[in-house]
Design brief:
The protein has helices at 18-29, 45-54, 67-73, 79-84, 104-115, 132-143, 156-165, 226-233, 243-258, 265-275; strands at 4-10, 33-39, 57-62, 76-77, 89-92, 98-101, 124-128, 148-153, 172-176, 188-191, 214-217, 238-240. With 280 residues, the chain is an alpha/beta fold. It has two domains: 4-102 and 245-275, Rossmann fold, CATH 3.40.50.10860; 105-241, 3-Layer(aba) Sandwich (Rossmann fold), CATH 3.40.50.720. It is globular, with a radius of gyration of 19 Å. The structure holds NADPH dihydro-nicotinamide-adenine-dinucleotide phosphate (NDP).
Length: 280
Amino acid sequence: TPIDRYAVMGHPVSHSLSPRIHQQFAAETGQKLEYEAILVPREGFSGAVARFRSAGGRGLNITVPFKEEAWRLAGKLSARARAAGAVNTLSFGATNDILGDNTDGVGLLTDLTCNLGLILAGRRILLLGAGGAARGVIGPLLAERPTTLIIANRNRVRAEQLAADFSLQGPISGCGLDTLSDEAPFDLIVNATSASLAGEALALPTNLTASQTFAYDMVYAAAPTPFMRWSVAHGAACAADGLGMLVEQAAEAFFVWRGIRPRTPSVITDLRDFLSGAYA
Ligand code: NDP
């Protein structure tokens, strides 16, 4: 029988760590599969998916900028993908349907609660950003039953809209980044903006952090991000980047496709070493 094929599609995609992650998952679980990175032209997403599928592809991870398009392309959506408004995992079954799922939210929650040991029930959470990544984690964050979840975004209207969309699910509100100066410190601040990608620090007031604050940046890098450095410099207890989220969302996608859950700690360690240039 031909080997099962998987891939990540994005633009850009050449630096994606997903092939490295999934190859380790396959080895660890004893599954035979191939996983590659496919660069897709901005206007060519649906055609690329169709070609991959007719060549025998079994599933795809989807990254920037195609997550919304993948959501529209999927004929069937999981409940969490429907809520997220974005798809990062496609599965091609025996029928013609394309199944769309979103594992980003679970990935963040697994990293926060299992790997980093945080308890979110009864805590105050600040979520920075109102793009696709922020939307995908709101449902899972509210499910932990925080006392407060504030979404703050540069474009205030997007944050307010997002809060309105989830208002039935818990204590959530939205505001602009520039209106946080009266807030008490938060227990958890999640940076779901792409500011750190550009090496930029967000303009945040210093009342947000205190000794109980855990700062989490969804962006991952070889060195602490500007947001991580800002948080610790202003009194946060701890700061982490999004590498654990990346590995955990991949583990959940692997489970969706293969029905088996890979162990992640050694993969996170490997990627950390890889990112920091230890294999160069
Ligand atoms: P989007 O482009 O959909 O959203 C970007 C968000 O960042 C918007 O809220 C935007 O605000 C805000 N933003 C961008 N630049 C700045 C700035 N200079 N100052 C303030 N706000 C800014 O991106 P996504 O939501 O898809 O992704 C966000 C980040 O999360 C990315 O960096 C991505 O790499 C990371 N990510 C990491 C994952 C992981 O597994 N670790 C998984 C998914 C995403 P505005 O609305 O005002 O424009």
